[in-house]
Amino acid sequence: MAAEESRCLLGRPASDSCPRVQNKKLYLATFAAVLGPLSFGFVLGYSSPVIPELRKISDPKLRMDSSQASWFGSVVTLGAAAGGVLGGYLVDKVGRKLSLMLCSIPYVFGYIVIISAQNVWMLYLGRTLTGLASGITSLVVPVYISEVSHPKVRGMLGSCVQLMVVTGILGAYVAGVTLKWRWLAVLCSFPSCIMLLFMSFMPETPRFLLNRNKRSEAIASLCFLRGPHADHEWECRQIEAGVQEEGLNLSEFKNPSIYRPLLIGVALMFFQQVTGINAVMFYAETIFEDANFKDSRMASVVVGSIQVCFTAVAALTIDKTGRKVLLYISGIIMALSTALFGLYFKMVLSNRNNSSNPDTWFTLNSASPGTESGISWLAVVSLGLFVAGFALGWGPVPWLVISEIFPLKARGILSGACVLTNWVMAFLVTKEFHDFIGFLTSSGTFWLFSAFCCLSVTFTAFYVPETKGQTLEQIEAYFRRS
User: Which of 284, 342, 422, 479 would be 446's cystine partner, CB 3.0–4.6 Å?
Assistant: First the structure.
């Protein structure tokens, strides 16, 4: 089996006497950790099948208008922004493993609140709690995986984070076809419970243990992760050397090798959100319903399937094509597809200037039936292209790049700033999506997303460094030189 295959640790000379590493238990630890991103994906996907149901529910205390539905979709990102900050604190104070286990608590309690909800405010509270857990997850899991992995498999295992997020989104879409909103919440709570169980048997990362001067426990962790035949002492010494070099003073933020990668990382997170991906994914079903598609739930399942497939393609090709090439291709595809989607809405919508009810801004039933039936393929192709394009580049690549361009001693705090930026922008985009449609119309909103996609390509060309094939030391030296 591939998991049992013996491999040499990168950094040691290749020879018959090279220490042999077994990856089976490393893969098990990674699987336990990525149940967090799977839960995270269920949180993101939950609102898409649930919002149409809650807007038509018979209970007036739970029935949502368009504004409330917008809050239900976007408040999770506000909780996640707070979770990113909290995760940055927890990961250094209580450790990577315990942080992951603790984030199961707001996941489960959030879904309990949703299941027992008697009014809209309880739904908001439940979504905020699951968002808080998602923010912690989005910061802690990549750190845990990178610190337990050895260099030969770190890229592959790190890419599983985004893959599991989109798998969770698809899972929520598929389950939402048959399950009512309360039972869907029950199902969504399962992955976090399983993660809590599995992580209790997994080790803490060797780097965190050595940073706390727990050398014997670090050796035991390496023995679990690498197997009994690897040279644990040698790897332990390499980690200790890195730990001793860590440390960041506030005065160093004046250093271009610190602030330049920070600005690039923050900009990547900004552009990742203003392309409109979370607005599209949160409201996928609503968009299809508003576009007069009869079976909007199955359409959302197709969208989720496309995202999973193309995220897997990106994970397999990113080390061959390079980061910038994927960002170029992704940005161009998204710019074209959002422009086409805007064109679709422009063609099928009749004049709504005489409508003053805000709820009608989100209801596209005024489309002329003849026109819609003739060009409905345009909406399907446009949304499919957008999701495929995002999954190829602007989905996974920004997260990879920010893990590469930051110097080791500043990686924690700079990554935390990027995670916070990402979730704040996700909140603003998803919350204001409804208002953008009211102000700019549906077509104008998608054309705005298209303009940001074009800007993202320009930014990539001038400011994002290509990191393919370079060591972290070479990347750090690049920023020092420039």
Answer: 342
